[in-house]
Specification:
Chain lengths: 186, 223
């Protein structure tokens, strides 16, 4: 009996200590990790979508509310005029969340381009969503289209439909927020 | 207790993964480039040294029956900390190593050293044992990864070695290349150790000499 109590107590103390250490580290590193992701993942993804802009989209990002969820929007400006916006959306992929950065042109309501930001699926199969030939299918589609013209990748249906789904989500949010974004960013 | 011996045994005598054949999953998976191998090696050195030290510190408080669970909790906490710190400070390395970092938890070397050494020895020898085995493991990873990167990509730590006309030996940077390189290195190490054991026997074991009727021959004649 005594040994039993000792076992339970030891394990409990150990687990409590470990939980404490981890939650401290998690809160301490959260802002650092976020800034690393902004600089090394989202920033480059935006730069690859838009051919030219004069502002710093990462530094000028703002959070908006849509249907009680918050979305971070990156503004793309040419001088003082807002020419486009970019946002990241994720959907469940084959083995974890798959993220898409989608850029929109304000004037024409079209998709400028898309890029992959978060990827955990199979390398060599699902990773073909990174291919230019797949991604450029989205270019200059209207934001209110149903994206049925986009072909999924054979053999990687889950990854590519998840990616299309993310783009669709971004387009819906874009249409809902358009007026508010124009007002807020200029 | 000879402290230097505790440290140095990980560098040759018990060199992982060649001598103790533990921790093969990261060995095969991340050694596609020398940089990745080094990153994984450093992460393992960190986790192994700390887990050995902590296990050795608490070894008298842990009841025998739950020791494995306790060791795993300690290792898991350290690995998650490493993962968070890597994300915060070396994000590009984290992107490369990705899913292999959490796998350090189940890296048998960590549990193996905790069970076989740290739970039975004082703190300083345990620390040195972890450091030695960790450095040995990191060196092995860099060696395997260098061979694979040089042959598979024609580069070493990202520096191009052979110029534009090099035709890469692609299989070396894919999965099978890991098995091939590991197998060849293991063979080489086994041959070399078999040879050195044989040599030693010839010198020290008198029966060998008697058998060959060479008892009085000078040692220099032994091949």
């Amino acid at each position: 009996m005594k040994e039993m109590v000792r076992m339970v107590v030891t394990l409990t103390i150990l687990c409590v200590l470990s939980g404490g250490v981890l939650s401290f580290l998690k809160t301490y590193t959260a802002p650092l990790i976020e800034s690393q992701e902004l600089n090394l993942v989202q920033g480059p993804a935006i730069a690859s979508i838009f051919p030219s802009y004069t502002n710093n989209p990462v530094a000028e990002r703002k959070t908006f509310q849509v249907d009680s969820t918050s979305v971070v929007i990156f503004p793309i400006k040419e001088g003082d005029t807002l020419t486009g916006v970019a946002m990241e959306q994720t959907s469940p992929g084959y083995s974890g969340a798959l993220g898409a950065m989608v850029g929109f042109a304000i004037e024409s309501d079209t998709i400028v381009g898309v890029n992959v930001t978060l990827f955990k699926d199979t390398a060599g199969i699902g990773s073909r969503v990174y291919d230019e030939t797949f991604r450029k299918q989205f270019n200059s589609l209207q934001a209110n289209e149903d994206l049925s013209s986009v072909d999924t990748l054979s053999g990687a249906t889950v990854s590519s439909s998840s990616f299309i789904n993310s783009v669709k989500k971004a387009a819906t949010i874009y249409l809902k927020l358009k007026q508010q974004m124009i007002a807020d960013f200029s | 207790m000879n402290l230097w011996k505790e440290f140095s045994k990980g560098l040759w005598e018990q060199l992982p993964p060649f001598r103790i054949l533990l921790g093969l999953c990261p060995t095969l998976a991340v050694t596609t480039s020398a940089e990745n191998g080094l990153g994984m090696g450093i992460a393992v050195i960190f986790v192994l040294t700390l887990s050995n030290t902590i296990v050795s510190l608490v070894r008298d408080f842990i009841p025998k029956k739950v020791r494995i669970a306790c060791f795993i909790v300690i290792a898991a906490t350290l690995v998650t900390s490493v993962e968070l710190l890597m994300q915060a400070y070396t994000y590009t390395l984290y992107q490369q190593l990705g899913i292999f970092v959490p796998l350090i938890v189940v890296n048998c070397i960590i549990l193996g050293r905790a069970e076989a050494f740290a739970s039975k020895n004082p703190v300083i020898p345990s620390f040195l044992d972890g450091l030695g085995i960790g450095i040995g493991f990191a060196c092995s990873l860099v060696v395997i990864a260098s061979i694979r990167e040089v042959l598979g990509k024609g580069t070493w730590f990202g520096i191009s070695l052979f110029g534009e006309n090099f035709e890469p030996f692609t299989i070396m940077s894919e999965g099978p290349g890991g098995f091939i390189v590991l197998g060849i290195l293991l063979m080489a190490m086994n041959i070399s150790s078999a040879y050195s054991i044989k040599k030693k026997q010839h010198i020290t074991d008198p029966s060998v000499l008697v058998e060959k009727g060479q008892k009085s021959t000078p040692l220099t004649n032994v091949q």
